[in-house]
Amino acid sequence: MLKFLENVQLADKTTYRIGGPAKHYVEPHNEDDIIHAYSFAQERGLPVFILGNGSNLLISDSGIDGLVINLSAHFSSMKWDGTMAAVSGGFPLDALAEAAAERGCTGIEGLSGIPGTVGGAVVMNAGAFDTEIADTLDSVLILRVPEMTEDTLLADDLKFGYRTSALKDCGHVVLCAVFNFKAGGDAVKVMLSRQDILKKRREKQPLDYPSCGSVFKRPPGNYAGTLIQSAGLKGFRMGGAMVSEKHANFIINTGNAKAEDVRWVMRHVQKTVFEKSEIHLEPEVIFAGEFNEPLFA
Question: Residue 64 CA to chain centroid, in angstroms?
């Protein structure tokens, strides 16, 4: 029986550990549950927000005034056929990278350690260490909204770009993603490559603090972290939100940070970098809910 809950706190469901409550909340187990959840929202005129692992996300302090559908709680499965894997949208991306490495399959180990779901990774074309989700994606099964019909799209149909795809902002739901990896042969070597990626993440990123990962997209011909560091902003803070001393493109939650604190720091970073370099930093993080603090335009 699908349970619809009210006023569920979302902070503990995000990697930032920030955010207010969801007015309505549900955790579907399968596709029928997802369709049922959308019917519930449509009957009541509620906006819908799809939640994965809550990474790359900043939820406002007032929360989300609608229905939050959390796919990461139960909508999570993976099936293998040789070097191909069919993975549900709520499956953890890092768990897929680990499973591929254990089978000696290559092409996704560069995404090891990214704390998102497969569905979110497809929508955003997640990438790191010269690897993108588009490199190995074969096709996706989506639920078209509001039609509530299923459709299969090939990777070429998704118009992948830097941290974007044709699925971004369209409202459709990734039900399943099919990947076609390369046979690496020696699983030990692939696992060692994965461990090397994880080591680099630990060395370069402030993983001891809650964050959303990289806050800003990489500007053409430059790096957001380099620009922020050159502007002297490492360690800059407002409330519990601070530009990391370890990696300047991370705004960390040092403890009890509010979403408005993060937005204030983001705006200050954007404004300062623009004044010094005339480069406008575009957020990579997704915002959910209503915010008082505007970003720098």
Answer: 17
State residue 3's pLDDT score. 96
Give the chain's end-to-end CA distance (angstroms, integer): 46
Residue-wise over 189-227: b if at least 16 C-beta within 10 A, else e?
ebbebbeebbeeeeeebbbebbbbbbbbbbbeeeebbeb
Q: How many beta carbons lie within 10 A of that of residue 133, not counting itself?
A: 27
Query: Which residues are bridge partners to 150 per DSSP?
Result: 143
For the chain of 297 residues, list the mean pLDDT of each consecutive stretch of 10: 96 98 98 97 97 96 98 96 97 98 96 96 96 98 96 97 94 97 89 96 96 96 97 98 98 97 98 98 97 92
Report the interhelical angle of 187-204 vs 93-102 (nearest 10°). Answer: 150
**Cα 90 to the center of its chain, rounded Å:** 11
Instruction: Answer yes or no: are the C-beta atoms of 229 and 269 closer than 8 Å.
Output: no
Residues in the chain: 297
| Residues annotated catalytic, as ranges | 163, 214, 284
pLDDT at position 184? 76
Query: What's the pLDDT at 257?
Result: 98
Contact 296, 271 (CB under 8 A): yes
Residue of 16, 254, 182 whose CA lies nearest to 115: 16
Q: Which residues pair with 49 in a beta bridge?
A: 68
Q: What is the DSSP letter of 225?
A: H
Phi, psi of 284 (to 5 degrees): -95, -30
48 three-state secondary structure: strand
pLDDT of residue 102: 96
* Token pair of 189 as six digits: 């070597």
* Cβ-contact 250, 182 below 8 angstroms: no
**Which pLDDT score, from 0 to 100, does residue 1 have?**
82
Which neighbouring-strand residues pair with 85? 80, 179
Burial class (CB in 10 A: 0-12, 13-18, 19+), 79: exposed
Element (H, E) at 37: helix 31-44
